[in-house]
Amino acid sequence: MMRQELSALFCEDHIRSFHVEQVDSTNDLAYSLISQDQREGEEGNDLLEFLEDSPKNTIMILADRQSRGKGRNGHTWLSDEDGSLTVSYIVSVPSSLLQDQAMNWLTPLAGVATVQVLEEFVADKQENQKDCKGEAFDRLQLKWPNDIMLRGGKLGGILSQLVPARGGRCPLIIGIGLNLSMPDKLLEDLFELGALATRPACLDWLMEIPQGSDLPAFRQTLALAIGRSLSAWMGVFNAHPHGTSRSLHAHLERMNFLADRYVTVTFPTGISLAGKVKGIEPDACLTVEFSDGRTRRISVGDVTAIRTGWSALPGTSSAPGPDGGLTASAAGNNLFNHSTKSDSDPGRTGKQGKESR
C-alpha cells in the first residue's frame, strides 16, 4: 500500500493520524511507511522528521478492517470489522537507549497508557464514578508481557516492533488490538474450537459500544485518546527513561493479572514449566517460583494462568532444561536515576489531550 492511499484523519501538536479502510496488518503498513521514508532520503522523509521534532510526537494508523493481524511469537490476531479496534502507533526513542534495560518497559508503557484511557471511557459512561472504580476498574488488568485483561478474559493485545534507524532516534511501532463488541456465543464458539488461544473479553461488558454508522466515530475517538495518552507517556519516558521505568513498575504491579497465580511458562525451546508468579522485576522480567522450589526471572516465553497447584501439567517438566530460557542475572539499579513522580508519570490523559499529575 502506498502513502497516497491513506486518508489523513487528524493533526494536532504531537499527533498525526491516518485512516485506511482495509489492510493486511497495521504494523506492517507502519513499517513500510517508515522504511519508505528512509529510502526516499531527505526529500521525502516527513514522517521521520515529525518523529524527530519532539519526543512526544506520535503517528497513528487506524484501520477499519485488518485481515492478517499479528500477535507475539507468530500468533494471529483475529479482528471483526464491526467489533474491533485495530490501530498502530509510531513513536521514537533515542538510538543511544537501545541497549538499556529501560527499553523493556515500552510494551508495558503502551499497556498502561491504554488501560488508563479505557478506565476514563468507562467512568464517563457510569452514573457513579466512585462505584465504577470499585468494580469495573479492578477488572482491567495487564497480563505479562502484552495482554489487556478484563474479568479473566483477553480484551486486547499489544505488539511492539523496532525499526532500524540511521539517525539519532529509532522509530518504534506499537500495534494495539481491542475487542469492542462481539456476540458472546461467537466468542465462546471460537474459543472452544481452538481459534483463540485465550478466552476473549469485550469492552461492551463495561460500557455501551455504538453500532452501525456511529461505530467509526467511536473507534476514531478511542484511538486518538490512546494516542494522546501514549504521546504523554513517551514524552516523560524520553526525558527520564529510568524514572519512568520505576513509575511503570508500580503501575504494572497494581494492574498485574498474574499476581500470585499458578502458571505454565512455555519457552521458545518448547519446554513448559509450572510455577507460581511472585511479581514483576525492575527490569520488567516476570518472577516465577517453580515447582522445584527455585525462583527465576523470565524474560521470554508464553505464560498461561492455570488452576492447578504445584504439580506440572501433563507433558511439562518440573525442572528447567539447559536452555529453558530462564534468566538469573540481577536487576540493575540504573533504572532509578530519576525517581520523582513529576518526572516519571504523566498521569491520565483525557479525551481532550489534557495532562494531569
From TrEMBL:
Alphabetical list of Gene3D superfamilies matching this protein: 2.30.30.100, Bira Bifunctional Protein, Domain 2 (3.30.930.10)
BPL/LPL catalytic domain boundaries: 49-179
MF-aspect GO terms: biotin--[biotin carboxyl-carrier protein] ligase activity
Pfam families named in the record: BPL_LplA_LipB (PF03099)
UniProt keyword annotations, A-Z: Ligase
Region (Disordered): 311-357
EC number of this enzyme: 6.3.4.15
Keyword flag Ligase: yes
Chain intervals with Basic and acidic residues compositional bias: 340-357
Polar residues: bias regions: 330-339
InterPro entries in the cross-refs: aa-tRNA-synth_II/BPL/LPL, Biotin_CoA_COase_ligase, BPL_LPL_catalytic
Recorded GO CC terms: cytoplasm
Protein name: Biotin--[acetyl-CoA-carboxylase] ligase
